[in-house]
Give the backbone structure.
Amino acid sequence: MKALILVVLGASNTLAFSPFNWWWLPFISFSLWFYLQSRSEDKHFALAWCFGFGYFGAGISWVHVSIAEHGGLPLIASVGMMMLLCGYLAIFPAITLWLSNKFMKRAAWPLALPFLWLVLEWCRAHFLTGFPWLSIGYSQLYSPLQGWLPVIGEIGVSALFIMIAVSIGQNLRVQKIGKSWQFSGLRSLFILAIAMISGAVLNQNEWATPRGQSTEVTMVQGNIAQTMRWIPEQDRPTMNKYRELTQAHWSSDIVIWPEAAIPKLEVATKGFLRELDEQANGTNTALITGIVDYNYETGKIYNSLLALGNDLRNENTIPYRYGHNNRFSKHHLLPIGEFVPFESILREIAPIFDLPMSSFTRGDFVQRNLAANGTNLAPAICFEIAFPKQISANLTEQTDAIITVSNDAWFGNSHGPHQHLEIAQMRAKEFGLPVLRTTNNGLTAFIDHKGKITQQAEQFAATTITETISLVSGKTPYRMFGNIPTYFVFGLLFVSGLFLQRKKPNE
């Protein structure tokens, strides 16, 4: 019975993330989870795994849309794959609680457990290429804790949240004595209040401010069905569609097309790219498009972003030529979708392991910003936006904004694209920079340097949105110092918890 309760508690947290944004809910569900864990004498790993299985099972259920609709597997097999994925992800919180119970007295949990949580979340974000999706800090984008995001980032807010939830779960008690109800452990609510109030105060601070410069950007959403994207007969209609949608916007400073908007290899599209480059140069515009680059000499294939037209403001640049360096190649590749581990074995098993364009090569971890009509853009393709360390490494003193392109058509009308947009908002809030998010079928959006969506395109529509974005100056503490302060502070608390537990009996 307890296992079922924990699965339900874990699953309920889906409502804390976009598009629902019930940010208060995890304070209840996580506190109850830690309460049940602290009152259990055994099976700590199994109980925590149940919570994690519900958490990821509901939270990333949108992954099943792509497996079921595009993977070529029977329903029982696609459901089985999802259960394996969620079961694997649930191992990380399970290890955290197992270690906490094995080596720490429960009185030390509020101080020590958050650091263990950080370590295991780091493992989840890196092991087997990493999948940091659904980190609990994202749920606090609309809570008073959001004020901490420019200071300690999403990872720091995650640790702060865990500290609060553990404190409440460990200490808060409600019991009936006679005819009256009595509360104990109210000091844990004091920690919550302090964190919330300080977050609200920090949120009033202007870490980055407009510097009096702006640039007009148009983002193009083609709404190409996923089933049509790699059919050769659809290549030219797709390219023409993007060109037609752009026709009325050559007056913008920058035009952005989404990930792999051009469905043909770059080497086979040089004529089309030269035409776009000439038109962009002729109108003092820069055009950025996603494209697949296959190098016949090296045999390597890259998921790339390519900048055409003006590099500098209102200055024609050298005409497009294949291999020019104003480009970005995706570094963090998606398993199965962009590369297949053990491919000699797996590609023979099922169509999902043999999808078109699933043999990409990684680009460098650090690459130059895209130069677009005098604006410097730090790129991220698809789920790279979920890796703040990579984003940070590619920010320079000259970076004006972050650009992220994606194709979320794989996930249909699910909550996956909404969570993806939420992650982009988090990066804007953390780094104090505007984020330009362009997708194939939504959710395309302008995000300001405070993480607020200022304009969003209708989902599942072929459309464009245009906005004049204000460029900012100033840096957030998180942009300057990254995760070092968070690991240092919570590392000290971890050591303090271990030291103090020697003096306190287990509860």
About this structure: The mean pLDDT is 90. Residues 62 and 415 are 6 Å apart (CA to CA). The domain at 210-328+365-475 is CATH 3.60.110.10 (Nitrilase/N-carbamoyl-D-aminoacid amidohydrolase). The chain has two domains: 2-176+183-206+483-503, 210-328+365-475.
